[in-house]
From TrEMBL, chains A, B, C, D:
Organism domain of life: Bacteria
Record protein name field: Metal-sensing transcriptional repressor
InterPro entries, per database record: Metal_Tscrpt_repr, Metal_Tscrpt_repr_sf
Gene3D superfamilies per UniProt: Metal-sensitive repressor, helix protomer (1.20.58.1000)
PANTHER family assigned: COPPER-SENSING TRANSCRIPTIONAL REPRESSOR RICR, TRANSCRIPTIONAL REPRESSOR FRMR-RELATED
Length: 83, 83, 83, 83
């Protein structure tokens, strides 16, 4: 998970960067491009967390024959994440 | 723009919160729900920036009869933002 | 608008193609890739309609000094479209 | 899968409806709202196909100890689908 924490730290830095851009009254479209970059980075972190979850928790549940509930929970969170 | 900076500070705090959740090895699906919340918050900031941009830069360009270029730029950034 | 109607006809054909794939019990992941392609095509149509709207209705409203309401409506529809 | 085919038929009808709106030169923002509705409907079909896929193919692969490849494929298609 160290890799994920590093990516989140970079995202934190990007969010601070956008704050600075707003404070310095930078061009709106440049700010929006930066926000888009943060969204992509966050989405990638979300997918890494999801993949990890399927590889561990969901797989274990399926092997124990208890996959149904685990898959339903996964789908409901994915729906929220993909809005 | 103070309101936007405050929202970005809150987002920065939320990103730090997710880092902590990852460090504490919290449940993946709870982490993903938090990431979704940050994405929504970022999207709202993006829309505020866009609205401000249309109200000022784009409107001014249109009034001067130079809207075309400004609208094309807006659309290209919006496409990236809505991916 | 002929171009947009042609794109919508192609999308209609793609949706029928997915129906056939489901009926023929094709591989789920291939079906999902096709659905993603339709979503991209629809998104592009949406952006064309939006650009046209800004170039005409919103621009006219702004020139008449009545941009505010028009821009608010645009933003509220864009928020729904970008979900 | 009958339910999914019915939903795709309804989506096909909605796409035809949008064509008609464009032909009748209806208000752009009303057209965009309709396109958003189709996108939501398509997204829901995509999630149903995904859930079905995880419940069958992915679960079977995991039970046979061959989950890794199956999960990687799922994630790569999900990334495309959630763009």
């Amino acid at each position: 998970m160290d890799k994920i924490i590093n990516r989140l730290k970079r995202i934190e830095g990007q969010v601070r960067g956008v704050q600075k851009m707003v404070e310095e009254d930078r061009y709106c479209m440049d700010i929006l491009v930066q926000i888009s970059a943060i969204q992509s980075a966050l989405k990638n972190v979300g997918f890494s967390v999801t993949e990890r979850h399927i590889n561990h928790c969901v797989s274990d549940a399926i092997k124990k024959g208890e996959g149904q509930e685990s898959i339903e929970e996964l789908m409901s969170v994915l729906k929220q994440f993909s809005k």
